[in-house]
Amino acid sequence: MNQKEYDLHDVVEMKKPHPCQSNSWEIIRMGMDIRIKCQKCGQMVLMPRREFEKKMKKVLVKAETSK
């Protein structure tokens, strides 16, 4: 399986746009399920990791890591 690199607080692009016409989402929770937040209208969506990986197109902005 092609594993895409994404992490908490990354901004990702999904294959289909949100009804508000935005296509960028921030990952705000990761686990078995992934919660993403629309960057335009603020709506949050929770989906299983497997479904998220199928619907995600690419990472737009990597989160700043403070290590």
What's the helix-strand series?
Answer: EEEEHE
What Rg is obtained from the alpha carbons, in whole angstroms?
11 Å
Q: So how many helices?
A: 1
The number of distinct β-strands equals: 5
Secondary structure class reads mainly beta
Counting structural domains, the number is 1
| Backbone shape | globular
**Proportion of helical residues:** 10-25%
The biggest sheet amounts to: 5 strands, antiparallel
Which residue ranges are poorly predicted, with pLDDT under 50 across at least 5 consecutive positions? none
Task: Walk me through the structure.
The protein has one domain (11-61). Helix content is 10%, strand content 40%. It contains one helix and five strands. The protein has one helix at residues 49-55, and strands at 11-14, 24-29, 33-38, 44-48, 56-61. Strand 3 (33-38) and strand 4 form a beta hairpin. The model has no long low-confidence stretch (mean pLDDT 89). This is DUF951 domain-containing protein.
Question: What's this entry about, in short?
Answer:
InterPro entries: DUF951. This is DUF951 domain-containing protein. The chain has 1 helix and 5 strands.
Write the layout of secondary structure elements.
Blueprint: E1 11-14, E2 24-29, E3 33-38, E4 44-48, H1 49-55, E5 56-61
Antiparallel strand pairs: 1-2, 1-5, 2-3, 3-4
InterPro entries: DUF951
Protein name: DUF951 domain-containing protein
List keywords for this structure.
67 residues, mainly beta, 5-stranded antiparallel β-sheet, 10% helix, 40% strand, globular
